[in-house]
Fold Site-specific DNA-methyltransferase.
Amino acid sequence: MATGIPNINGDKNKKHNSNNFCLQYDGKASIEEILRTQQAQLRCVISVDKQPRNRLIFGENLRVISSLLNENTVAGKVKLIYIDPPYATGSSFESRKRNHAYHDLMEGAEYLEFLRQRLILLRELLSEEGSIYIHLDENMAFPVKIIMDEVFGYKNFRNWITRKKCNPKNYTRKRYGNVTDYILFYTKADNYVWNQPFELWTDATAKKEYQYVEEGTGRLYKKVPIHAPGVRKGATGQPWRGMLPPNGKHWQYTPETLDKMDARGEIYWSPTGNPRRKIYFDKSQGISVQDIWLDFKDAHNQNIKITGYPTEKNPDMIKRIILASSNKGDLVLDAFAGSGTTAAVAEELGRQWIAIDNSALAIATIIQRLVKGTEAMGDFVNGNGSTKYEQKCLIDIDRILRTGLDLYIEETSELELIPDSVIADWDSKLNFQASFL
Ligand SMILES: C[S@@+](CC[C@H](N)C(=O)[O-])C[C@H]1O[C@@H](n2cnc3c(N)ncnc32)[C@H](O)[C@@H]1O
């Protein structure tokens, strides 16, 4: 693999990191106009009276985010945003039980502007140490990357993560099978929360990577170069033990540090006198996670527990994101909450959370999930006339909600009306057991 040589002597004003282009399309509103977006009128309809209090909001997210910007406990305080918006698929989505969930019918400029307006407001909610992840597929990921660069700044782009979303399918179309989607990771600034995730070594990968056994100690190690590309004029460009770094390269450490490392036995000398650095297996926390995620497919068989809401994401994938980009007690927000995967995982990991969705089915699903968790679901599990017996116990061990909750409803004629009887039912389910836990 070729490694480029960083330009440290170039024109300092000409930053490689700047983006001097943007996406043009009809109907692109000014940032000032977007920041003046009308605010949602929110009515709190259910409270589970415990601390900390999380929030579930049934409303149009643009107006809801705009109203959250008025709250000084939220604006500029959110540490992590994960959103999984509609993907411009041109489809409408139903749950496994064939109930309408949401439409995904916007396309082109209309779709991009819909997302851009929300991203501009979401940026204002983010803390200076905050991160945002946006999940998309190949339909719109490319233009949205350019919008993200405009809104968050190219220099705050961290990763384009490729996720394997499903098992290979038998495609009949004349093209390669599509098994991936994408997560774009940006931060608000440079000093962001980051807990480096690691994958555990397997015996096989550890043996392949750490092939050498240190004499005397028996420690496994691998050998890596002690030089890096680029010429340096300072100490790292000077001879060490009478040896200059190879042509066009410099030492990774000063000769003084290399001496100390050698004294500790951390330098391997080849029979021809070439020094290499030893990296020990017992010092490794695992394999640092890379930007291809193969282990987080969405529910693909009937043994996996789900809610039945369409496009529900793998909770372990959300767990990786929440653990890497937030700490306990931090505020996490999902403005396209769907089945509430972000909310449920945030709750389990001791983060505070706000979840917003404008689908009545999504809100009902999230409440059910908080009260009962997820369940194995599928034609085989629920159909074929087979009877499913449920053993009820007083304290539901699958309950996810452990902390407090406020459910808000946006007062607007645009949204489906949720009958008072349904709200009363949710209230009793959410509050039941709350005092036991
Ligand atoms: C792809 S789904 C999210 C799935 C979610 N990540 C999960 O794991 O279940 C997108 C969600 O965005 C919601 N949505 C779309 N437009 C919205 C809007 N303008 N305001 C609030 N929610 C919206 C839809 O109702 C839908 O539930």
In short: The longest strand covers residues 126-136.
